What does this fold into?
Amino acid sequence: MDADHVPSEITSVLLTESQIQERLAEIAAQVDTDYAGRDLLLVGVLKGATLVMADFVRHMKSHVHMDWMAVSSYGSGTQSSGVVRILKDLDTDIAGRHVLVVEDILDTGLTLSWLLKNLGSRGVASVEVFALLRKPEAVKVPVSPRYVGFDIPNVFVVGYGLDYNERYRNLREICVLDPWVYGG
Ligand code: PRP
It folds into this structure.
């Protein structure tokens, strides 16, 4: 689905499909270099990171392993609750592994700071973060991702994996949601 298919629900296109893909290719090349000679495990955070992961790994030129975690912090609203729950844990024992967490968005930082503590307590060789999007103005808990796709303003964005009430994840672009959709 494109933004053109839901024009009344979208205020603007923040990042086009080609901007996203170009940036993913740059970061994939950087990760290939940084982890050369090491066995890398990418951990995607469901569900938002599914599209990032799918495209990101196809830009990479090295072997990678993938695993997935599902955590919940938002529920169905637009504000972070601060309560993080594991809905699905990793299938992999990550002790001694080099782990790169793949996230669609770093908003308040509550989810990632919790996740980094959790993964860090499992005896990893290293754990770093790749967040496609970061909202510097929204941060409540400082997290330092090693790789960031784009810094964006503090607006409610959907598309390319990001949802509102489970809709819009299949938009090709990252778009600003019109506030009438969520009653704002
Ligand atoms: C989103 C996103 C991050 C988190 C970021 O997940 O994928 O995991 O919120 O927000 P924070 O920095 O304020 O913690 P969400 O809980 O909406 O689940 P989803 O990926 O299934 O949409």
User: Anything to note?
Assistant: The mean pLDDT is 94. Strands lie at 10-15, 40-46, 65-72, 85-88, 98-106, 126-134, 147-151, 157-158, 174-177.
